[in-house]
Design goal:
heterodimer, A: mainly alpha, 21 helices, globular, B: 0% strand, elongated
């Protein structure tokens, strides 16, 4: 059996096994181990598996993951999300759909210190859904906006997906973070536009809230300032090259811890829960990274990525057509496979093609994050929808999926915008030293 | 068997706290290094210590994460299967996963022994590397045990 054929069988086995509810990281490691052993030798394969695990778990650049996860967890358990929403809704709660707009704003701000979509959706859901219910918002708007707003967590830096993408493709994580910032803001605007249009068409979705006196508005700002400070500190440090992403994560986690303690918002119980969640989430991510590394070695000896890249250059499709196909794969895959797992599975295959076609690797990173962001809220897997339905137990799933639709449209518009104007995400990284 | 499972749960939980401790140390050390750098006194070897601590932070959390079913899985296909088939699929998955972690634990132990033999140390501060490779072996061994007990539970569910 030729290496290429072995590789193809390996990829097929990978996808079959993943759908049998075996942890994705385990499958990648197992198939990679067997495939590498078959092509090279099982002695070499045994050797590789131990060395790969150590090189991934002990990699300095990957320690950025637990640290940013810790930061997000500490922020979650210190109730920062509630204060962010509070500030936003004091300012615009009296607009039609104002609470929903406030939710988008608070999600964006929370995403700025938290790298995960489900954490953002869960935490914002718990903080904002009861309020929207109190002001008679219809459940489809309320839950839809939380699920969609939560997806901002992977685009607005720090983002776990950017970190993993950066490590896999050897791109600068700092540059990727910067690249996500403008598209993130554009999406926030598009989400707000979606709410405004939707509540214009059906005003009963989001009735006006009470007006708040100016003094109260100003008082609520304190909840915003701490987050802003933290964000500026981390992003500024990265932007001017003062520290590595790992250092940014450590400072961010420590800063969040101090803020939580100083404001007496972080209890002992919350601190312990943050730690337990941090180890679990980091372990989950790194197991996938390790699996992908092992699988990647197998793919490399099977020569499949090279064959595909060569094949693509030989059939001479226009480059945007190839990009369209790749995006379609992410769109369809994103509906059924977790976004992180999907990126880990596909990057070794697509990345050489993308480079060959002359696309900018940073731009491509932003695009696939956007596309997988669409995946997080599309049925049947749309993980954020399930997270929100876990918080809003009285709302049926199909209502949430219906509520997500206008935001899906906004996401698609945003993706098209970035494809048409690739300079948007590349603007900030270009300014870095 | 039930008692063994309980003890195993306690053990993975304890290891998980060690992992959390490692992550806190990584945070504290990195912050200290950044602050001291401002005064031109960086802590030598911070990068390599933090990287090595990372092995503890992940591998000691492995068994706990596995026991809590915390890994990313694709569930929508198996959810459509009848209960009995789900159990059979789960048992097979746990069996092979346990085997995989057994192999990794064994190979990591060999790798650690090899590193002891060649007395491999880190670049700047010259910490021996083998204890960290051993931590992976321990974490994977524990994970293998967790998966083996899961396999036993699934098997019992198929039979009854």
């Amino acid at each position: 059996m030729s290496p290429t054929l072995t590789g193809l069988i390996g990829i097929a086995a990978l996808f079959i096994l993943i759908f049998l509810r075996i942890p994705v990281g385990f499958v990648m490691a197992g198939v990679g181990f067997l495939g590498f052993g078959y092509i090279v030798s099982f002695d070499a394969s045994m050797n590789m598996i131990a060395k790969d695990l150590f090189s991934v778990f002990g990699s300095y650049s990957l320690t950025v993951i637990p640290l940013f996860v810790l930061m997000g967890q500490l922020a979650y358990h210190s109730g920062i999300s509630k204060r962010l929403f509070n500030a936003a809704y004091k300012f615009i709660g009296h607009w039609p759909g104002g609470l929903a707009i406030a939710t988008v704003g608070a999600c964006a701000a929370f995403a700025a210190i938290c790298g995960s979509t489900n954490a953002t959706a869960a935490t914002m859901g718990a903080a904002t859904l009861p309020e929207m219910k109190r002001y008679n918002y219809k459940p489809e708007l309320a839950t839809g906006v939380v699920a969609a707003g939560g997806s901002l967590g992977i685009l607005i830096p720090p983002s776990v997906i950017f970190i993993v993408y950066g490590i896999l493709t050897e791109q600068s994580i700092g540059r990727l973070f910067m690249a996500g910032l403008l598209p993130g803001l554009i999406l926030v605007l598009l989400f707000i536009l979606a709410i405004v249009i939707w509540t214009r068409m059906r005003p009963e979705l989001g009735p006006k809230g009470p007006k708040v006196p100016l003094r109260e508005k100003l008082a609520s700002l304190s909840g915003l300032i701490e987050t802003l400070l933290l964000f500026v500190l981390i992003m500024g440090g990265l932007f001017w090259g003062f520290f590595t992403p790992t250092e940014a994560g450590a400072i961010g986690a420590f800063g969040t811890l101090l803020l939580g303690l100083a404001g007496r918002n972080l209890t002992m119980k919350g601190f312990i829960a943050s730690l337990a969640e941090t180890t679990r989430i980091s372990c989950m991510i790194l197991v996938i990274v390790a699996g992908a590394t092992i699988f990647g070695h197998f793919l490399a000896v099977s020569r499949i990525p090279f064959d595909i890249a060569r094949g693509v250059s030989e059939i001479q499709l226009p480059r945007y057509a190839v990009m369209l196909i790749i995006i379609m794969v992410y769109l369809i895959g994103g509906c059924i496979i977790d976004s992180l797992a999907l990126i880990m599975l596909t990057i070794p295959i697509f990345y050489p093609v993308v480079l060959l076609l002359g696309y900018d690797p940073i731009w491509f990173g932003v695009i696939i994050v956007l596309v997988t962001q669409i995946g997080v809220i599309t049925p049947p897997v749309g993980i954020n929808v399930y997270v929100v339905s876990g918080v809003a137990r009285d709302v049926p799933l199909d209502v949430i999926f219906k509520g997500v639709l206008p935001f899906l449209a906004a996401l698609i518009a945003g993706t098209l915008l970035l494809i048409a104007f690739p300079q948007i995400p590349l603007l900030l990284p270009g300014l870095m030293g | 068997m039930l008692r063994l499972k309980k003890q195993l749960d306690n053990l993975s939980n304890a290891f998980n706290w060690l992992a959390a401790g490692a992550i806190l140390i990584m945070m504290a050390l990195t912050c200290a290094d950044v602050v001291l750098r401002l005064f031109r006194h960086p802590i030598p070897g911070t990068y390599e210590i933090v990287g090595l601590m990372g092995t503890v932070g992940v591998s000691f959390a492995l068994a706990y994460t596995t026991a809590k079913k915390g890994h990313i899985m694709v569930e929508f296909l198996t959810n459509m299967m009848p209960k009995k088939t789900q159990c059979i699929v789960a048992a097979a998955s746990e069996f092979f996963s346990a085997l995989l972690f057994g192999i990794i634990a064994w190979q990591s132990t060999l790798y650690a022994l090899d590193l002891i033999h060649t007395s491999e140390v880190s670049l700047t501060v010259e910490i021996p590397v083998y204890p960290f490779v051993l931590s992976i072996a321990i974490g994977c061994f524990l994970t293998g045990l967790v998966l083996a007990t899961d396999f036993y539970t699934s098997l019992k569910r198929i039979i009854t």
